[in-house]
Each structure stands twice: as structure tokens, then as C-alpha cells.
Write a structure and sequence with these properties.
about 100 residues; YaeB-like fold; 5 strands
Length: about 100
């Protein structure tokens, strides 16, 4: 059963920032990021429990080729995307607590 996917405003801002940065690095890379992101979101919606819980209730979906995580949780029958982050960035302590 496919779950609906909701993207929080913070994640939308991060997605826009990442896309602009990657497009500035190499023409077409921003578009590739969006294609991979949409494929990842579709997979997460279809198989929301495919990725293990890493912090409290949060799971990390991975883009196929680019090194980015989609940080999400399953809440009341919906996949809620909280962040989209590069794999090498430190975890946000204020986001995860502790």
C-alpha cells in the first residue's frame, strides 16, 4: 500500500538550495538531483519501512547515485519528509535532540 508523502517547508527550502548549488557546480546536475529525489520519494511512499529507523522515529532514504539522504518519519499513515541532507554533513542536534 502506497502512503502519501508530505514535504515540510524546511525540506523544500533545502531541496531548492541543493538544486541551485548542484546546477552551479555542473550544468544538468541540479535536474539530475530532482529526478533522483522524485524516484527516492516514490520508493519511500511505496515501501516506507524499507529503511531502518536511525534516530528516534526518523529514517534515512538514500538517493540512487548522489550522496544525499531524505530524512523522514511515518506519521499517521503519511510519510513526512523533514530534511534532505548531504550524507557527509553532521546530524542536526537541534533537530534530533541530544
Amino acid at each position: 500500500m502506497t502512503l502519501p508523502v508530505s514535504i515540510r517547508e524546511e525540506a523544500i527550502t533545502e531541496i531548492r538550495t541543493i538544486q541551485l548549488y548542484l546546477e552551479g557546480e555542473k550544468h544538468g546536475l541540479g535536474e539530475r538531483f530532482l529526478v533522483e529525489l522524485l524516484a527516492c520519494l516514490e520508493l519511500i511512499g511505496r515501501y516506507p519501512r524499507a529503511y531502518q529507523v536511525r534516530h528516534h522515529i526518523y529514517r534515512y532514504g538514500q538517493l540512487a547515485d548522489l550522496q544525499y539522504h531524505v530524512i523522514y518519519a511515518i506519521e499517521e499513515g503519511t510519510v513526512v519528509v523533514y530534511r534532505v541532507r548531504h550524507m557527509h554533513r553532521r546530524t542536526l542536534k537541534q533537530f534530533f535532540g541530544g
